[in-house]
Amino acid sequence: MTNKRKRYLLSILVLAFLLVGSIVACEIQALPSPPAITARPSSFSFIAEQGEPNPRSQTLSIWNSGNGMLSWSISDSAPWLSLSPTSGSSTGEVNDVAVSVDNISMSTGDYTAIITIAALSASNTPQTIVVNLTINSSPVQEAEQVAEQIIDALDTDRLLEIGYSHPEEVVTVQGVIVRAYYAEDSTGQPTFLDFHDPYEGYFTCVIWHEDRQTNEPIRDKFVEAFPPNPETYFLDKKVRVEGKIEIYKGTPEIILADPSRIWIVE
Prior knowledge:
Elements: H1 2-30, E1 37-40, E2 43-49, E3 58-64, E4 70-76, E5 81-84, E6 87-90, E7 95-101, E8 109-118, E9 127-136, H2 139-149, E10 150-152, H3 156-165, E11 170-176, E12 179-182, E13 191-194, E14 204-207, H4 219-225, H5 230-234, E15 238-244, E16 246-248, E17 251-255, E18 262-264
Parallel strand pairs: 2-9, 10-11, 14-17
Antiparallel strand pairs: 1-3, 3-7, 4-6, 4-8, 5-7, 8-9, 11-15, 12-13, 13-14, 15-18, 16-17
């Protein structure tokens, strides 16, 4: 009798534990999931020109992809970036945020900022979004920069400094060719394009008859590109010449081997 009673009490206890476990499991299953932050797009890219109006603002969409109420706030890491509004709430509807950049007084280059979306009750807080900003030079500024990089053919001191200190630097030189001739009877049969008369001590361009190492014809290429010949074609013309500055007997010069390295400018 005692054993039966013990077995009966044990069965009651087991049933009670099973019943309590079922109730707890039902309550756990019944608990709703917390709010969750969802935002699109996952990144932004802005392109602007220095000194020009700011690019158009873009839209960041935020909504609750979980349950309940999502109360969010938003912040950024850059002074050139602005967000409006900076907080909101969602039970599933989409909240739009205007993302704007202010590139006034900023230098050209690439910039990056981070947008952070936070919500205390969200299961996936915080969320971050990358914003990239590229500021290019305006066409006017690019033209000015090109002009600054062009060296006057009569600026002998600057050309000498480049030739002595930066012989590997490729530069662009501009000027009017006032004297040109083909020294057919001289060694190497050079063609001289001079930017000053007298030419001594001033920048000049030299076109050799052929490459002195490979014997490849050079002057013939210039005659074909600039008929009837380069000394006639370029005389009294304003040109630009591109190449490395070499120093010969204290005078700066560029050795031309490719016709594409010299052209007429208006």
